[in-house]
Amino acid sequence: MELLNGLNPEQRQAVTLPHQSALILAGAGSGKTRVLTTRIAYLISTGQVSPHSILAVTFTNKAAKEMLTRLSAILPINTRGLWIGTFHGLCNRMLRAHYREANLPQTFQILDSGDQLSAIKRLMKAMNVDDEKYPPREMQNFISGSKEQGLRAHEVEAYDPYTRRKVEVFAEYDAQCQREGVVDFSELLLRSYELLSRNAAIREHYQERFRHILVDEFQDTNKLQYQWLKLLAGRHSALF
Fold first, then answer.
1. Is the same domain home to 30 and 72?
2. Structural domain boundaries enclosing 121
3. Which of 74, 100, 125, 141 is the one with CA 20 to 30 A from 190?
C-alpha cells in the first residue's frame, strides 16, 4: 500500500494495528504525528471506518492544521467536516451543537487568556478584593486550575479564610460569565465534560459515532481532558 511507503517497521506496525486500543511510546522527533495521521488515512482508505467516525485530538492548532493538510494530500476527501482539532476546538464545536443542553446562549463568546484576566480584575474591583493580597493572575490560575481538575467553585475544599475568599471570587466569576454569555478556555472543556456526563442521549450519540479516537501527545493530557476522552470512548471505540 502506497501510503505505508517510507514508514519504518515499528511505524508500519502501529499504523496497521487491528481495531483495538493501543498506547504508542515514542521519543521526540520520531514521527508520532505522522504515524497518527497515516493511521487515520489507513483506516479510511481500507474501508474500516467512515471519515466521520474518527475523532482526532491534538494540543495545538498548528498540529491540527498539519494533520488536516497531510490527510488532504493523502486522501481524496473533504476534510472540512472531520472531527480533528484541539481539545478546546472540539469542545467548542460540541457546545455549539448542543448549546441549549449546555445552558449556553447560541452565540456564546470565548474569552482568551487576556480577556479572562480583565474580567477577573473587573470582578475583584467590584467585590473589593485586595489585588495585592490576591494577585489577579494568581486568581486566574486558581480558577483555571480548579476547572482543569473538573471542579466547580462549590467543590473546591477551602479550609482557611484565604482560600474561602478565592472560592467566593471563583463562584462569582462563573456567575458573571453565565450572565454575560461568555466562556473561558477551561470552561469549554469542563462544560463539554458536564454535558456528556449528565446527558446520556448525547453521550451515547458520540460514543456510537466515534469508533476510533486518536490522541496526539497523550502523555500531556490533564485530568479533565482524560475524563472527557473516557466519556467519549464507548464500548466499541478504539483509543490510539
1. yes
2. 109-180
3. 125
| 55 Cα distance to chain centroid | 11
Alpha-carbon Rg for the chain, nearest whole angstrom, is 20
Q: What's the pLDDT tens digit per position in 198-237?
A: 999 999 999 999 999 989 888 788 999 999 999 999 878 8
Average pLDDT value for the chain: 91
| CATH assignment at residue 227 | 3.40.50.300
Distance CA 66, CA 33 (A): 9
Position 117 confidence tier, pLDDT thresholds 50, 70, 90: very high
**Residues contributing to the annotated binding site:** 26-33
Identify whether the C-beta of residue 89 lies closer than 8 Å to the C-beta of residue 64: yes
Q: Which of 95, 113, 116 lies closest to 105 in space, CA to CA?
A: 95
Tell me the three cell numbers of residue 154: 462549590
Q: Specify if 39 maps to a domain.
A: yes
Report whether 16 contacts 26 (CB < 8 A).
no
Binding-site residue numbers for ATP are: 26-33
Residues 68 and 13 in one domain: yes
**219: phi then psi, degrees, rounded to nearest 5:** -65, -15
Residue 158, SS3? coil
CA–CA distance, 139 with 136 (Å, rounded to integer): 5
Query: Rounded to whole angstroms, how far apart are CA atoms 171 and 104?
Result: 17
On whether residue 186 sits in a domain, the answer given is no
Give the total number of structural domains in the chain.
Answer: 2
The pLDDT of residue 199: 96
The answer to whether residues 12 and 81 belong to one domain is yes
| 70 shares a domain with 27 | yes
Q: Is there a domain that residue 70 lies in?
A: yes
